């Protein structure tokens, strides 16, 4: 949900963009991969019995991490490509810990590492939303 709010806020700032097919397709990368990430973590519901969350975690971990990696990478470069923002400005730099967290989630099978990585991704998105909101207010 946080990532969706972040994407909406970023795209809203691109309203004055001179749109073409390439820019439209690029802007679609983030929500498509966000949707893929949500689809991957949606639990399978067995016909009977309990849901095996450990098996579900093992199945979803790598595809979710890849989807979030692509999402964060696409969101990092939409501002520099379309709004003239610096690649390594505050918003750009905030994407780096999220991308690192996605890489950790991909490579580490440990639950603690993945909980920390997920929490870090959530904090990164919150921080980016905070920076964008504070820029809009001032």
Looking at the structure, what is the overall shape? elongated
Order of helices and strands: HHHHH
Cα(first) to Cα(last) distance is 25 Å
Please give the share of residues in helix: over 70%
Strands, total number: 0
Which stretches are poorly predicted, pLDDT < 50 over at least 5 residues?
none
The count of helical stretches stands at 5
Largest sheet, if any? none
Q: What share of the residues does DSSP label as strand, in percent? A: under 5%
Summarize model confidence as the mean pLDDT: 86
SSE class: mainly alpha
Number of domains: 1
Radius of gyration: 16 Å
Key structural traits:
mainly alpha, 5 helices, 138 residues, 78% helix
Q: What do you see in this structure?
A:
This protein has 138 residues and is mainly α. Helix 1 (2-12) runs antiparallel to helix 2 (21-41). The protein has 5 helices and no strands. The two termini are 25 Å apart. The longest helix is centred in the middle third of the chain and has 30 residues, at 53-82. It is elongated, with a radius of gyration of 16 Å. The mean pLDDT is 86. It has one domain. 24% of the residues are buried.
State the gist of this model.
The chain has five helices and no strands.
Write the layout of secondary structure elements.
Layout: H1 2-12, H2 21-41, H3 53-82, H4 90-107, H5 111-137
């Amino acid at each position: 949900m946080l990532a969706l709010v972040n994407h909406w806020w970023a795209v809203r700032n691109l309203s004055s963009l001179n749109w073409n097919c390439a820019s439209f397709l690029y802007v679609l990368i983030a929500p498509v991969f966000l949707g893929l990430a949500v689809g991957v973590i949606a639990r399978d519901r067995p016909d009977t019995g309990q849901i095996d969350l450990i098996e579900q975690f093992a199945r979803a971990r790598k595809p979710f991490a890849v989807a979030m990696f692509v999402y964060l990478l696409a969101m990092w470069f939409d501002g520099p490509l379309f709004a003239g923002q610096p690649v390594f400005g505050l918003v750009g730099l905030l994407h780096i810990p999220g991308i690192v967290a996605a890489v950790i989630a991909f490579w580490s099978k440990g639950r603690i590492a993945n909980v920390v990585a997920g929490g870090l991704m959530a904090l990164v998105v919150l921080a980016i939303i905070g920076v964008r909101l504070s820029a809009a207010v001032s």
